[in-house]
Amino acid sequence: MIYANPGSEGSVFTFKAKYDNFIGGKWIAPVKGEYFTNTTPVNGSDICQIARSTAEDIELA
Question: What is the CA angle 54-6-36, rounded to 5?
Answer without folding.
Answer: 20
